[in-house]
Amino acid sequence: MKKSIILIGADSFSDAQVFFNKFEKEKIFIIVDANTNKFCLDIFFSFFPFLKKSIILEIEAGELHKSISTIIALSNQLIKYKAEKQSLLINLGGGVISDLGGFLASILNRGIRYVNIPTTLLSQVDASIGGKTAVNFNQIKNKLGFFYAPSLVLIIPGFLKTLHKNELISGFGEIFKYSLIYDKRMWNVLKKTEFQLGSILEDLISKSVIIKENIVQRDPFDDHVRKTLNFGHTIGHAIESVYFLDSKFNHGICVVIGMICESYISNKLNYLSDSTFLEIQKTLFSKFSLSKINNIEDVLFFIKEDKKNKSNKVNIITISEIGKAHFDVFVSEDDLKESLIFFNSLHE
Ligand code: GLY
Fold it and tell me: Is 229 close to ligand 1, i.e. is its CB under 6 Å away?
């Protein structure tokens, strides 16, 4: 997979302009949803007025619209406006827009160039980087997809001002993940960091992006080390599926609960010392507001459905110290259940 240019912050706008200038004579399309159309598009144009000539394609907001029917509707629009191999597609939005727009770019004329402009903290530190594109299919998340890297990722931390506090906290969940799998110094900074905008967050975004890009370059197609990015996600995704209508369980919060449970299992399987496990569990539980899991059996059902499992065995990421992760660790259903019961006991 080709390497993306990744630019962060206003200091990099002149480099982004140089990139966009290459498309001066080409058609440029921008995918937005109702929210990014309202809150982000004009800000984006104020930085790059030349892009006002672009054709805007608006889709409905939300995971429900990350679908083949949206791809068909957008393909019809692109064909109507005579999109060509040399055209550029810009995805302005969160992970739904970058996953969907990236997938569309990968199949249109067997691949056109595209740019991700992530507008949520989650997408700035994760979804916009690494070239995983997808749509949901038959109610299975990311079932149809492709590895296809954006030519440019432009991260504008100023967009985070438009976010609800819960969305910011959700993004911090993924930032904590990077520290636990890769960077103990970052963990020590995070322990003392408030969930707020500012220069510390901008620095944490840069660190997260560097970690993710480094891992992706070593394993672009998810065969080995890239799997460690799923720390907390086997259990976290299952919790997200059970509580998908409950705003107390957004993606980052579910990943944090998953990281407590997967650290518990790491400790039980003798990867992780008691003292480090205690430090992780106490830090995450005190920093995030985490609700009890009332439907453990349902969570276990969804864990068994996870697409990362092999031969009916459940596969998780473990850690052996802060900053060191291990992939393809197979665990029993009893250990998974015990970890969720342990998580609930923290509330007593
Ligand atoms: N979000 C995990 C990955 O990109 O591999």
Answer: yes
Interval 18-62: pLDDT, tens: 999 999 999 999 999 999 999 999 999 999 999 999 999 999 999
Asked if residue 130 has its Cβ within 6 Å of ligand 1, the reply is yes
Domains in the chain with CATH codes = 5-161 (3.40.50.1970), 164-345 (1.20.1090.10)
Q: What is the pTM of this model?
A: 0.94
Test site for ligand 1: of 153, 182, 212, 219, most ligand atoms within 8 A of the Cβ: 212
Within 13 Å, how many C-alpha atoms sit on residue 182's CB side? 22
Residue 311 is predicted with a pLDDT of 67
Judge if the beta carbon of residue 132 lies within 6 A of ligand 1: yes
174 lines ligand 1 (CB under 6 A): no
Nearest to 206 by CA among 172, 149, 165, 155: 155
| Nearest partner of 226 among 146, 317, 99, 142, judged by Cα | 317
Q: Give distance in angstroms: CA of 227 to centre of ligand 1.
A: 8
**Cα→Cα distances 63→33, 66, 113, 172, Å:** 11, 5, 24, 20
Question: Does residue 237 have its Cβ closer than 6 Å to ligand 1?
Answer: no
